[in-house]
Structures are given as C-alpha cells and as structure tokens.
Design brief:
CATH class: Mainly Beta
Radius of gyration: 25 Å
Helix content: under 10%
Number of domains: 1
Structural class: mainly beta
Length: about 200
C-alpha cells in the first residue's frame, strides 16, 4: 500500500514498525502522552503493601501470627498482592522485593535479648533460611512492668517463583514467656511489615 498524505493532514499506508529507527524521539511525544497503563515495564514502584500485628505473640513465636492489612487513618496499599495466612506470606508476582520489619517489644521481665528472624523458603515451607535478623534488649528493669524496646531490619529479596516462595517472621525471647511480647494495636503500626516491589526479576 502506498503512503498517502490525506487532505486533512493525516497519513495513511504506514504499517506497524514501518518508520525508520530513530525517527521518533522523546521530544516528539506530547506532554502526558504516555499513560501509566502504557508505561508497564519502564520501572518504578508498582506494588507497596503492608501488614500490622493485631494480636499477642508472647515469648517465642514461630511463626508470628495475627497480621492484618491496615486501612484506617489514611493507610493504604498500592496494588497489594502479598497474601498472608497463619503467619506465612506469599507473593503473587515475581520480582525484586524490599521487605522492612519494624518490631516493638513489651518486657515485663528482665531480658537481655528478644530476637526476630525473617525467614524465607523456596520449597513451599519445607526448609527455611534466615534472610534478616535483629535484636532488642532491656537488661535490668527499673520498674516492674511495661518496658519497651524496638528494632528493625530490611532486606531485598529476589522472588523468582511465587508458587514455592514463602516468608515468615519468627521471634526468640530470652524469657520465652508471655511476660515478653510483641506490641500490637489495631490503630498503630507498632509491629509491622512493609513490602515494596522494586522491579522485575
């Protein structure tokens, strides 16, 4: 089909891919011409999801359970596709994921350490490996109750197979008793996990 310049200024007869390489550059694109729906694959943050703790986990917990996805007080998720069941997190898309863990511990006993271990499995939970860990401590308490300590950690994970990849949080307290527990609240992210997809794998 011949290329035709029509009387109304349009051009017909050009097939897809018919223009020579380099003939269209970014200066030729109109402002706001590329919508978010057309920009997939160009990079940028595509998923941000968060979970907060809403029930007590005392002493040693494996895994930590009682997570919920907060939505009050302007909190939200962007294309949230991280699922949780009985303390086990799964992903619905592969890619490079940053995972941030924030923990607040309540100590009603003297305690040198209260550790957390973020653990991953690539075989559907048959085997687990540490990918991030940290610890908090109060040592000897001044008063009898209500001492707080906090810690946090972050890791970037390469999720290559969503059918077998699993993630969980495990805690290890020196006292291993209900007198030491993760702080939780329905309206505040005292103990929380944040997931951000950085890009495709």
């Amino acid at each position: 089909m011949p290329i035709v310049i029509n009387g109304n200024g349009t051009i017909s007869g050009i097939t897809t891919g018919g223009l020579p390489d380099g003939i269209v550059d970014t200066d030729m694109l109109a402002n706001n011409a590329v919508t978010s729906a057309k920009s997939s694959g160009l990079g940028g943050l595509t998923v941000a999801d968060q979970y907060a703790l809403n029930s007590s986990n005392g002493g040693d917990a494996n895994p930590v359970t009682g997570w919920y996805r907060p939505s009050n007080n302007s909190r939200a998720s962007l294309n949230g596709n991280v699922s949780e069941s009985s303390g086990i997190f799964t992903f619905s898309s592969t890619g490079y994921w940053r995972v941030d863990v924030i923990l607040y511990n309540v100590h009603n006993v003297d305690e040198r350490y209260n550790q957390f271990f973020l653990e991953q499995s690539t075989d559907s939970g048959s085997n687990w490996n540490h990918c991030c860990t940290n610890s908090s401590s109060v040592g000897s308490r001044i008063s009898s109750t209500g001492h707080l300590s906090g810690c946090m950690g972050a890791v970037i994970l390469d999720v290559t197979d969503v059918s077998t990849f699993r993630l969980k949080l495990r805690t290890n307290a020196e006292s291993n008793s209900t007198s030491s527990y993760l702080s939780y609240d329905a309206d505040s992210n005292y103990t929380s996990i944040l997931f951000m997809k950085l890009g495709d794998t």
